[in-house]
């Protein structure tokens, strides 16, 4: 979704590399729809694009084999390809969420809720796994009542967070698995006047997160680095690089701003 700050930053970074080569970048949104992804790829390849950088929605990328045989290089970003060996540039999703759990435990929390994106998205599944691993590493038993998955967008995140915050045994801290989910969760915290009582750590930074009260502590991805790396790989392939395909991992960074440092 090019409207998402992550995707727009990713696109700009790719474009900045491409413009140095005199190359135009075309973009489209798949909206987590496999059929729409295929239609976009077909539209681009029918116009004889030189290469493809894909943030995948599909769970089977064998349909790209014909394009590869035709000499079109393909690089995946954010999520690895499925059923296809290809270059990919991804984030350390599980490690980032584990860091968030450890951070909250260090600040005294044991009842940590989690709001995750669609479980069918590979990155969302990895982040949920990181949450489970983080709890286990800290000797905390999983309580499914403080977990909400398949939370898509700000409004659903707002509703899911309100359900947790108004339950009989609410969490003292929340981890949110995506930037729009974080915005919705913070909206719920503000509405319940709990934004200075319940800790919040979000995955993905977003515009103005540092200007809220308190500022939002995040596990920040680096979409610009992902975009630059992916574009560099694509142009190397276009220049004739035939090295084995690789998966490149871009590390996350914890940015402490206040919301994740609230004690129970």
SS-derived structural category: alpha/beta
Gross geometry: elongated
Q: Topology as H/E string?
A: HHEHEEHEHEHEHEEHEE
**Which range does the strand content fall in?**
5-15%
Name the CATH class of the largest domain.
Answer: Alpha Beta
- Terminal CA distance reads 36 Å
Query: How large is the count of helical segments?
Result: 8
In the predicted model, the low-confidence regions spanning at least 5 consecutive residues are none
- Average pLDDT, all residues: 95
Query: How do the strands line up in the largest sheet?
Result: 5-4-6-7-8-10
Radius of gyration: 20 Å
- The helical percent reads 25-40%
Question: Describe the biggest sheet?
Answer: 6 strands, mixed
The CATH architecture designation of the largest domain is 3-Layer(aba) Sandwich
Describe this structure in words.
It is a single chain. With 264 residues, the protein is α/β, with parallel strands linked by helices. The protein has eight helices and ten strands. The chain has helices spanning 5-20, 34-46, 65-69, 93-106, 122-137, 154-165, 179-191, 223-238; strands at 52-54, 74-78, 87-91, 112-115, 147-148, 173-176, 199-203, 217-220, 247-250, 253-255. The strands form two sheets. Strands 5-4-6-7-8-10 form a six-stranded mixed β-sheet, sandwiched between helices. A four-stranded parallel β-sheet has the order 1-2-3-9, with helices on one face. Helix 1 runs parallel beside helix 8 (223-238), helix 4 (93-106) runs parallel beside helix 5 and helix 6 packs across helix 7. The radius of gyration is 20 Å and the shape is elongated.
């Amino acid at each position: 979704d090019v409207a998402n700050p992550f995707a727009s930053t990713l696109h700009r970074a790719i474009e900045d590399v491409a413009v140095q080569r005199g190359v135009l970048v075309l973009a489209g949104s798949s909206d987590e729809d496999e059929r729409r992804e295929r239609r976009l790829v077909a539209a681009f390849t029918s116009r004889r694009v030189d290469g493809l950088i894909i943030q995948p929605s599909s769970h089977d990328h064998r349909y790209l084999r014909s394009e590869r045989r035709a000499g079109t290089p393909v690089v995946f970003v954010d999520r690895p390809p499925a059923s296809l060996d290809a270059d990919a540039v991804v984030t350390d999703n599980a490690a980032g969420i584990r860091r968030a759990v450890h951070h909250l435990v260090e600040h005294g929390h044991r009842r940590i809720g989690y709001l995750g994106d669609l479980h069918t998205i590979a990155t969302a599944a990895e982040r949920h796994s990181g949450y489970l691993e983080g709890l286990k590493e800290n000797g905390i038993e999983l309580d499914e009542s403080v977990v909400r998955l398949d939370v898509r967008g700000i409004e659903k995140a707002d509703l899911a967070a309100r359900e947790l915050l108004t339950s009989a045994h609410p969490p003292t801290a929340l981890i949110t698995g995506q930037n729009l989910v974080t915005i919705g969760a913070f909206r719920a915290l503000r509405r319940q006047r709990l934004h200075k009582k319940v800790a919040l750590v979000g995955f993905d930074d977003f515009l103005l997160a540092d200007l809220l009260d308190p500022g939002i502590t995040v596990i920040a991805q680096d979409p610009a680095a992902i975009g630059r790396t992916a574009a560099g790989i694509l142009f190397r392939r276009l220049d004739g690089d035939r090295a084995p395909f690789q998966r490149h991992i871009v590390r996350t960074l914890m940015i402490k701003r206040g919301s994740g440092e609230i004690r129970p």
